[in-house]
């Protein structure tokens, strides 16, 4: 499990991704309120798999189901994302559902490297890269790079991504990696 701060940061990135896709699909509505709503719901969805496990209707606020069980089920979040994306522009609930599903899926991607893993289809699967709370910077940076690339593609036809790639190629480190025979951006 990534830390709470990492889930909040990746939730903001998921909200930006959802807003860019909603705007690109033309489902933002008047004054782009739908785009703003997708952003807000993406932020909420970024922490949703954890807070949906809490029994808010009781005084003790204990978990009503086991952690990383039903609320962390990847197939459910993917189905919500698929339905809401295809319903953008035709269903009033599609925009908030899309933002929420983007955030929830981002949460699962942040939890995946942990040894506990995430139940994507039937059983848990883990990338087994690091323990909880470690390497959060990698997860947050990856989420924001994805947000940058997707938003750039949606709003600017990817021109800034090409500039960024060309800039990295111009760095001396890039030339050194090529001489060393290591994989680099081409």
TrEMBL record:
One MF annotation (Gene Ontology) recorded for this entry: hydrolase activity
Alphabetic keyword roster: Hydrolase, Membrane, Transmembrane, Transmembrane helix
One Pfam family hit: YdjM
Superkingdom, taxonomy of origin: Bacteria
PROSITE patterns assigned to the protein according to its UniProt record, in alphabetical order: PROKAR_LIPOPROTEIN
Transmembrane stretches, start-end: 35-58, 94-114, 135-156
InterPro entries: YdjM-like
Protein name per UniProt: Metal-dependent hydrolase
Organism: Noviherbaspirillum pedocola
